[in-house]
Specification:
The structure holds three protein chains of three kinds.
Chain A: H1 19-41, H2 57-66, H3 73-88, H4 101-112, H5 114-117, E1 120-121, H6 134-143, E2 151-152, H7 155-164, H8 169-172, H9 178-183, H10 195-207, H11 214-233, H12 241-246, H13 250-257, H14 268-288, H15 295-312
Antiparallel strand pairs in A: 1-2
Chain B: H1 2-27, H2 35-42, H3 56-65, H4 77-88, E1 103-107, H5 117-121, E2 127-128, E3 136-137, H6 147-151, E4 157-161
Antiparallel strand pairs in B: 1-4, 2-3
Helix pairs in contact in B: 2-3
Chain C: H1 2-5, H2 21-24, E1 37-41, E2 51-52, E3 59-60, E4 65-68, E5 77-78, E6 83-92, E7 100-108, H3 128-137, H4 150-160, E8 164-169, H5 178-185, H6 187-200, E9 247-253, H7 257-267, E10 273-278, H8 287-295, E11 310-314, H9 315-327, E12 333-339, E13 347-352, H10 357-363, E14 373-376, E15 383-385, E16 398-402, H11 420-424, H12 431-439, H13 443-448, H14 459-463, H15 470-537
Parallel strand pairs in C: 8-9, 8-11, 9-10, 12-16
Antiparallel strand pairs in C: 1-7, 2-4, 3-6, 4-5, 6-7, 12-13, 14-15, 14-16
Helix pairs in contact in C: 3-4, 3-6, 5-7, 6-7, 6-9, 12-15
The chains are: A mainly alpha, B mainly alpha, C alpha/beta.
Chain lengths: 332, 184, 538
């Protein structure tokens, strides 16, 4: 006789995916882009993701992806701390938070330390003679930058600054190379550099079934449509959709940040709405807002709307109508 | 000058509003709340005394005054506790409340003398029998008040836990293990 | 192409690892040694338990009625073999709790001697009512696991003018292959059972005279397309124009090609029976999912499928119907899949009802050291059993002896709101919200957002990356809601009893008071008379 076993209900078998499996897959997917970022900006970039306990690895990583690569070390520390404490623990730990922790921390940092957060180095690849060596990188990270000359705003911020000096787009962008931007040879935070690698990582995640396509596609589509419409109306004051998609944290946000399980809606339709909302807000903030990059704010605002979306957009229950009333028997 | 006018106007405002509140308090007064009656109607009304109060009415009064928890009534169980909490607008956390083990009386046929004392005190007529005949308890009607046990001269009435059968067996609530955030 | 854009007919669901090939490729084993004792529960169906009509010590033959059905929804129980009745008493039930229920214990005599049943000629000469009476008397219940008495369903079919009879051959649960083998090996008998079921549902009153005729079928290439494209020809009673007939659709998941081919070959002579392939996706065999997929119609909540003109039976039930009507054999045995990692000889085996699982395990050489969990039914919806000293019943489609490595991890993690459970739920529920509310005892909220529409299919538990036992939360909550309703009911009942008692006490007190007053009055009257008498004397 086999010893008494306690009752357990189905399903007795299960899918292979576990929470940590999912987390590792996401980390794997952003690794190439990160590695490329480090390659572009050299060792100082590595120093940002400093403190991370096991649970927060992904959060810390995503935050690091959105910070300027040569940011002082304490930005990373404060940011990770904010992400974990404000973003996750005050809500009761994993799965309970209302806002995306990485974005919360980034926005908090952006508001608190505007200068440090908007100082973007030019590409200075690792192993190139003029790039900072490892020792120099420690110096940058801990003592701050001395040659500020090498740094200006990220692409969109740059355009915005130029706009304020009444330049038109065609003048501003004469040096801009879309291709370089696409592969990542450009200024920006770690996660903003290589559009190509980020898209590849994101597509791989969708293929793996870790994320669904609804949020990225609706987000990118919304931005593209809006940007196209405005660009066609006035191509001297509104940047092209290509530039929009290609620059800033767009891909990182679309594939890795907005798709965060905890803070996005539960249903397919809800996720489509969520993605479109993020896209709209990103475009609005980028175009008319005070900040060059609106992704963080956009995601946080839509996070706040997530419970509302979940409340109103529900799947229809079998045999019931959308309001939950039983269906009527069809008259034959 | 400005300071003075500010002080005067705020004082006046305070006085007027306070006066209005006073009037409203006097004329719009709600008569003593019918909450006790409502509570009493929720309670079983068997005056069994398991709550520690002499009857259902005193228990309802204690509930209304906030001197008793919503989980006061053992025969009512958590279903009643929820109703009471809803009525009083209390936050009820049943997870800390252990569901009281429900007991029913059972007659031991060997020692019953048929004295009829038990079924005279039973508030729900759950005991059936006749003089000089062995009595029996209808378990479905027994509320576990133990009054019969107290009067039984031969101790043949005893309280027993309700038997678990396939009809009333339930799945237990999954217990959440210690939450750890170490996911990776 | 248009169908691509039409409303999706399958919602949610998962594709679990099948584990079917190991048993689906070998023939049903018929050489199971007759157990010495059989434990036959009196309730193996939905409804009221059967009432025994034999006594301890009676000698019975195989197929003899042991307990008759009582009430509208019930089913009788027959002797699975010949022998002597040892006991009628409470024994552990095949249920996760293994609590006792009433069973008949039969000691077999080894002869396995059938009760001779009267032969009938052509069963299609019987009236439809007679068919369902015989099906009911044979103790046939839904063998897919629902165990609803089949005769009751046939009766409902006659009352509701069914236009489609769906035969569920999906067998979507992993591991199980008993229906698959049955279709491969006994296709003709199943088709015969389906025809008998169709006959049993015919409304002999000839109502529905103005129903439109189905178009002629047979468009090549359309055989596998579902639902609206399914034009079935006017069926078996084509000789009587104007009478609406029911068409049968046998739906088989497309991972069972052999079964599909066998069934199609067996069904080809009958124009009103159609065999179709359906996608392999659990829970395709959920009756309402299958109905939506095949007919495009959705069964409203709180209604039976017969109310929208559809009824659904399992292939095993059709086979049992064939045996009952053609051979007069009641339901006394069934094919069971014995599988799982701890089973050395996994197989489909036909066993008498009431066989103990321990005997099955001995025959299939189960390594008891490896067993981490015994499951009755499939691994998605089946229930765990605490030990092997429990009998198989009509509902037992499979017994799985699963090893620890096959089981889903029980290491529960916090919910990360990934909403996988929402996307796999075939009923359109939000399991994560329901479970969260149940965890904090907000059962009312859980009910409001659909707890009662949960079918416990297990998709959410299966997919959950945090290993949250969602289905157990829902089962717990449903039980708790039911218990509270009962408690509520009892409390009302108690109040009524107390009021009645108080009223009675008052009446008695009033009566006593009146009697007392009457006595006092009488006494006063007597004294008055006495005084008057004395006065008169004076």
């Amino acid at each position: 006789m086999i010893p008494h076993m306690k009752p357990s209900s189905g399903a007795h078998v299960g899918a292979k995916a576990s929470v940590s499996h999912i987390m590792w897959q996401v980390i794997l997917a952003i690794s190439p882009a990160t590695a490329f970022g480090i390659l572009c900006f050299g060792w100082p970039a590595l120093n940002t993701p400093v403190i991370m306990d096991g649970s927060a690895l992904l959060t810390g990583w995503l935050l690091a992806m959105t910070l300027p690569p040569w940011a002082p070390w304490w930005i990373g520390v404060v940011g990770s701390g904010l992400a974990i404490i404000l973003g996750k623990q005050v809500y009761g730990g994993l799965g309970q938070n209302l806002f995306n922790p990485a974005m919360l921390a980034r926005v908090a940092l952006l508001i608190s330390f505007p200068i440090e957060m908007t100082t973007w180095p030019n590409v200075s690849p690792l192993f190139f003679s003029h790039s900072p060596g490892l020792f120099e990188s420690w110096h940058i990270t801990f003592a701050g930058l001395e040659n500020i000359d090498a740094t200006t705003g990220a692409t969109l911020g740059f355009i915005k600054t130029e706009f304020s000096q009444n330049h038109v787009l065609s003048e501003i962008l004469k040096d801009y190379s879309g291709f370089l931007n696409f592969i990542g040879w450009t200024r920006g935070s770690l996660g903003e550099t290589s559009t190509l690698l980020l898209v590849l990582g994101g597509v791989w995640l969708i293929r793996q079934g870790i994320i669904q396509w609804y949020i990225p596609v609706s987000l990118l589509l919304t931005v593209t449509v809006l940007a196209s419409v405005f660009h066609l109306m006035d191509d001297q004051h509104f940047v092209s959709p290509f530039l929009h998609l290609n620059s800033g944290a767009m891909m990182c946000v679309a594939f890795f940040i907005a798709t965060d399980y905890v803070t996005s809606p539960n249903t397919k339709a809800g996720q489509l709405v969520f993605g479109a909302g993020c896209g709209l807000l990103i475009f609005v903030i980028r175009t008319w807002g005070a900040y060059p990059e609106g992704a963080g704010f956009a995601v946080l605002l839509m996070n706040a709307a997530t419970p509302l979306i979940d409340h109103y957009i529900r799947p229809r229950i079998y045999g019931r109508d959308r309001k939950g009333k039983p269906l009527e028997i069809p008259k034959s | 000058m400005y300071v003075l006018s500010a002080i005067v106007s705020l004082t006046l405002l305070g006085l007027v509003l306070g006066f209005l509140l006073g009037i409203a308090g006097k004329y719009l007064k709600v008569e003593s709340s019918p909450i006790v009656d409502e509570l009493e109607s929720l309670l079983p009304g068997s005056q069994c005394g398991q709550c520690g109060f002499p009857g259902c009415r005193p228990a309802a009064e204690a509930l209304a005054e906030g001197n008793a928890p919503a989980t006061i009534c053992p025969p009512g169980g958590s279903a009643l506790a929820e109703q009471i909490a809803a009525l009083l607008g209390l936050d009820l956390d049943l997870s800390d409340v252990k569901e009281p083990e429900l007991l029913v009386a059972r007659v031991s046929e060997a020692t019953c003398t048929g004295c009829t004392r038990c079924f005279k005190v039973c508030p729900t007529d759950a005991i059936v029998g006749a003089p000089k005949q062995i009595h029996a308890v209808v378990a479905d009607a027994c509320i576990g008040c133990k009054k019969c046990v107290d009067v039984c001269p031969t101790e043949c009435l005893q309280m027993h836990p309700i038997e678990v059968t396939l009809r009333n067996w339930r799945w237990t609530k999954p217990t959440l293990p210690e939450t750890s955030n170490a996911v990776c | 192409m248009l169908s691509f854009f039409s409303k999706p007919r399958i919602r949610g669901g998962v594709h679990a690892e099948e584990h079917k090939a190991v048993t689906a490729t070998q023939a049903i084993v018929n050489s199971f040694p007759l157990p010495e004792k059989l434990y036959i529960p009196l309730q193996q169906h939905v409804g009221k338990p059967a009432e025994p009509l034999i006594r301890v010590g009676d000698k019975v033959l195989k197929g003899q009625l042991l307990a008759y059905s009582q009430g509208m929804i019930s089913a009788p129980v027959h002797a699975p073999s010949s022998g002597i009745i040892l006991d009628v008493n409470d024994y552990p039930a095949p249920h996760p709790s293994a609590l006792p229920i009433r069973m008949i214990v039969l000691e077999t005599d080894g002869k396995d001697e059938w009760l001779v049943a009267p032969q009938i000629g052509d069963p299609f000469q019987l009236t439809p009512e007679d068919i369902s009476l015989r099906v009911g008397a044979a103790g046939i219940v839904g063998l897919g696991g629902a165990t609803f008495p089949t005769a009751v369903k046939l009766n409902m079919g006659r009352e509701n003018h069914i236009d489609t009879l769906i035969i569920n051959g999906s067998e979507c649960e992993p591991y199980l292959s008993c229906d698959d083998r049955l279709m491969q090996e006994r296709a003709e008998q199943i088709i015969d059972g389906v025809r008998l079921m169709l006959h049993g549902m015919t409304n002999s009153q000839g109502a529905n005279l103005h129903s439109p005729e189905g178009g002629r079928a047979g468009q090549p290439g359309m055989t596998n397309s579902p639902g609206a494209n399914l034009h079935l020809p006017e069926g078996g009673r084509a000789g009587q124009p104007g009478i609406k007939t029911t068409n049968a659709v046998i739906a088989i998941e497309d991972n069972k090609l052999q079964a599909y081919l066998a069934m199609q070959a067996a069904a080809s002579p009958f124009s009103n029976i159609k065999v179709i392939q359906i996608p392999t996706r659990y829970p395709m065999g959920w009756d309402r999912q299958l109905i939506r997929y095949v007919t495009g119609k959705e069964v409203p909540v709180g209604c039976r499928s017969s109310e929208i003109g559809v009824t659904i039976h399992n292939v095993g039930t059709a086979y049992a119907t064939h045996k009952a009507i053609r051979h007069g054999q009641p339901l006394v045995s069934r094919v069971i899949t014995v599988s799982g990692g701890a089973v050395a000889r996994p197989m489909n085996v036909e066993v008498p009802l009431g066989t103990l699982i321990s005997e099955l395990f001995k025959f299939c050489q189960v390594n008891s050291d490896q067993i981490a969990r015994i499951v009755m039914g499939g691994p998605m919806m089946g229930e765990s059993l605490p030990h092997t000293g429990l009998p198989t019943v009509k509902a037992t489609s499979g017994i799985l002896a699963l090893t620890a490595s096959e089981l889903k991890s029980t290491d529960e993690q916090p919910c990360i709101r990934c909403a996988s459970c929402v996307s796999v739920c075939p009923a359109g529920l939000r399991p994560l919200d329901m479970a969260n509310n149940i965890r904090i005892n907000q059962l009312d909220v859980a009910v409001d957002i659909g707890l009662k529409d949960c079918i416990s299919c297990g998709c959410c538990s299966y997919i959950c990356p945090s290993n949250i036992p969602l289905v157990q939360y829902f089962k717990y909550a449903s039980g708790e809601v039911a218990a509270r309703q009962q408690a509520q009911h009892k409390s009302e009942q108690t109040k009524r009893l107390i009021d009645a008692r108080n009223a009675r006490m008052e009446r008695i007190a009033q009566q006593q008071l009146e009697e007392e007053q009457a006595r006092i009055a009488a006494k006063a009257e007597r004294e008055r008379l006495k005084a008057a008498e004395q006065e008169a004397l004076v």
